[in-house]
Amino acid sequence: MTKIAAGLERAFAQKGFAAPSVETLRDAAGVSLRTLYKYTPSREEMVHAALEHRHRRYIEQVFHDLPEDGDLALSAVIDRVATWMAREASHGCLFHAAVAAAPQDRRLRALLKRHKAEVAERAAAAMGRPDHDVELTIILEGLTQSWSLCGDAAVVSAKKMAKALREPA
Amino acid sequence: MTKIAAGLERAFAQKGFAAPSVETLRDAAGVSLRTLYKYTPSREEMVHAALEHRHRRYIEQVFHDLPEDGDLALSAVIDRVATWMAREASHGCLFHAAVAAAPQDRRLRALLKRHKAEVAERAAAAMGRPDHDVELTIILEGLTQSWSLCGDAAVVSAKKMAKALREPA
DNA sequence: GTTGAGGTAGAGGGTTTACTCTACACGGTC
DNA sequence: GACCGTGTAGAGTAAACCCTCTACCTCAAC
User: Fold this and answer.
1) Does residue A169 register a pLDDT over 80?
2) Could you give the C-alpha distances from B140 to A127, B23, B30, B117, in angstroms and in order?
3) A29-64: per-residue pLDDT in tens?
4) Closest by Cα among A122, A116, A114 to A76
5) Do the Cβ atoms of B16 and A102 come within 8 Å?
């Protein structure tokens, strides 16, 4: 099942949510059409499964084993987000992409919101300032969207702004 | 032609880039299929026309008649972006949505880049600090993406961060 | 009144799509 | 050996899609 979800995630990340046909998804998942439909009974479910998998991988990669110190932790989070962008999401956040492809789908929107809320909460906790979750959302969302436009300059600026967040308090 | 582009923009903004069929787009454009194909000879072109129109409207709404003073101008830009989100783009930036729907399309990517570059440049100019374009990109992109998640709290935080941008220089 | 450019309405073709269903292979348990 | 759950391979269906094309209308210019 995780193998299927991983394949689906890879396919959607590469080709977007609209283009790939179910047969393409089947190839990416590496199973037969029947098995694919057994675990994800519709294309919609395939999107959902891919995003669930994405969420777990993202949280794991960005927030595992952070330093205790708030400054170092925040800096590490920013670096890891940049690494994630470079390696996995050069086209932007997959959750926003999924919602953009199907703006009417309330279930997807809920998934996006849960994902972003958990990211913000964990980042604020790592920083040691749970009250700064909105500012952190802006910085991380801004970094994610700007990375493909500005490259590593976005990382430098994001760190600068994160620093300014703590100091003048 | 602008009427067609306006209708297309509205349709894509409402239903995303994948879902609406050409017949739906025809209804939104308010012309016959033949005329629609005359001005936009393929579905791809329809997307393009919609985004061009979107770009002009966005620039106009966010950057027209800004105050001279850098502080006030920047604050006004942030407010207007929030107004734009509330009125037109509750599902996020349309350019990112278009690219996400067709990540392979280089032409769309170029359009996105031009749009964002012009926004950042104008914002930096309005602020009176052309060297802060990357930071402004992060704030505006962050605000745009966070608005649907955090609502007006995102506006408050964005202004706070914009202020911090200038003061400790 | 005629002409010609540019519009509408909508049927049709050929392709692609999401999904179902049949036929068959394998591997562990009685 | 018989059986059953779980897998693969892939043909088949009904609908939807993008785009083209024919037939007709409108209206301004001369």
Assistant:
1) no
2) 23, 35, 34, 12
3) 999 999 999 999 999 999 999 999 999 999 999 999
4) A122
5) yes
pLDDT for the residue B143: 95
B32 touches strand C (CB under 7 A): yes
Distance CA B32, CA B38 (A): 10
> Cβ contacts (< 8 Å) between B168 and chain A: which residues?
164, 168
* Helix extents (H) in chain A: 2-15, 22-29, 33-39, 43-63, 70-88, 94-101, 106-127, 133-150, 152-166
User: What is the value of pTM for the model shown?
Assistant: 0.91
* Mutation site, A85, A91, A135, interface B, largest B CB count within 10 A: A135
B108 vs A69: CA distance, rounded Å: 42
Topology adopted by domain B1-64: Arc Repressor Mutant, subunit A (1.10.10)
Domain layout of chain B by residue ranges: 1-64, 67-169
Could you read off the pLDDT of A99-118 as tens digits, one per residue?
Answer: 999 998 999 999 999 999 99
The first and second tokens of residue B157, run together, are 């935080």
